[in-house]
Design goal:
This protein has 16 helices and twelve strands. With about 450 residues, the protein is an alpha/beta fold. Among the domains are: about 180 residues, LDH C-terminal domain-like; about 130 residues, no CATH class. The strands form three sheets. Strands 3-2-1-4-5-6 form a six-stranded parallel β-sheet, with helices on both faces. Helix 2 links the parallel strand 2 and strand 3. The radius of gyration is 22 Å and the shape is globular.
Amino acid sequence: MTKITCIGAGSYSFGLSTLITLLQSEVLKGAELALVDTNQESLDLISALANWLNSEWNSGKQISSHSNHKTALKGSDFVISAIEVQPREKLWQQDFELSQKFGIRQPYAENGGPGGFAHAARNVNSILEITRDMEKDCPEALFINFTNPMHRICYLINEYTRIKSVGLCHQLAMGYAMVAKALAPSYGFEGSEEFLSTHADPANELPQRHMAFLGMENFKITAAGLNHFTWMTQLQDRKSGEDLYPLFRHHWSKLPGSFEPLTRKIFQSFDIFPIPGDEHLGEYLPWLSCSRTCPWLKYDLSLYDWAYYDASRDRQWLKITADVNNQSNPNQYQAHSEGALEIIEAMVTGEPLYWEAVNIPNGNTIPGLPANAIVEVPAVVDRSGFHALESFAMPVGVLSLLQREVATSQLNIDAVVQGDRNLALQSLLLDPVIDDIDQAELILDEIITNNKNFLPQFIA
């Protein structure tokens, strides 16, 4: 019997969608789902939902609930993690505002910049505790990671534990949405004019999703790089195999200049299309924080709406509470898979699966990056693991940007694991947001002070 442990089962972004897809799997009928969340209220609610849907759908899963991963791990074949140190939105806003004290404006502050450093650092000790307990209780289990910053967290697991891991992210969907918008005139897609931006604005959600599904249905993107920093190396018609990159270039040039202006500028400058969309892309570039030219205004780089998504989380739980209490309309719970289900099914059945974006150790998949860098590439998964089918020779300019981000992120993790302030400072000094060595030291002190509860290794 397959056992799947879901840590952070109450996650707003990934917990619910992952649970629904696992419950709906016929392949995994009879599997045990161990739901883990340190927030007892969230755990009780998501467990009640799981038991209700399991019964209504005749899913045949065995469900258990755990407020600590230590009681759940034993015998696990797969461990899915979507943990975040809470309160997520308030800490993210804190990370953004931190550098403003020193006159530095971060593009987004989630995965790159000082905010990315702090975000990763807060999660290190929790992830290490889980994976080191896995080494004792389920050493052969696959750790499926959804926690950001993705390639930093996956590097932590790969470098400092013996646990096999993979990182999954849905950002490739934004690439599909942008391609579908550009090629809408040739393919007759409707609704492309309503898709105005990849930004994390609630008003964008439905048009984004619509265009992303059209893109995934009709096209095949091959992309390589780092999570939230990938680049489209090939674009084909999914049915005929026709090379669509030339047609895409032509139609992209006809789109309004207000649509993804940063992506447009980078595509023009480096002659290869960046996948993530403007907000995530900007985190890794050294030209988005200049107080003299204010590029965040020029490129319309909006921030995450922390208050909205904090409130949205509460609205979601209130709705689930009402649904569980009323036990009506279970079929309203549908979800698009984030990839964990397909990968688990492939490994359980032994049926090879091609997945378009997995975060795995580089080896020599992208020449010029360290072998232990965590790269996001397409790969085939089977019982033996993940296998990239080709190597990606990136343009020199893009490779240099990737190399810088790899070094920055690895120093970040190495510093936190070892409690080494000097390595931490080096990480910040390599970060494209930082432009002053003395300010970097002040920002580091501020990060450590603000996060002292999560970073005891730095407190003398």
